[in-house]
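Protein record

Derive tokens from sequence
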Amino acid sequence: MTRADGHLVATVDRDYCLLIYPLPDWEEIERKLVRLPALNKQARRLQRLMVGYATELDLDSHGRILLTKELREFAGLERQAMLDRARQQVRAVERRTMERSTGRV
């Protein structure tokens, strides 16, 4: 399989979408997040948001993941999500939201 062996972590960001990382990538991001300055209000908010919602997921035999209710509600995912591979992460966004933001309706 991959270096993550189907183990992923999903979390949230400030844009109300989900970020999905292979487990080794998330572990590095989490280390960086916990090293942010504790006296910085924005850093604390980001830590609470990303680490607080971080959820380990496993790919099933068909390459799918089952998102928790909390993650789906945070991102407003109801029926269909679109994946956007940007930078070193995958973003899951409600299909209608993605179509509106890209001008495809």
In short: The chain has four helices and five strands. Residues 7-102 form a domain with the Chemotaxis protein chec fold (CATH 3.40.1550.20). Helices lie at 23-34, 41-53, 69-75, 95-102. The two ends are 36 Å apart (CA to CA).
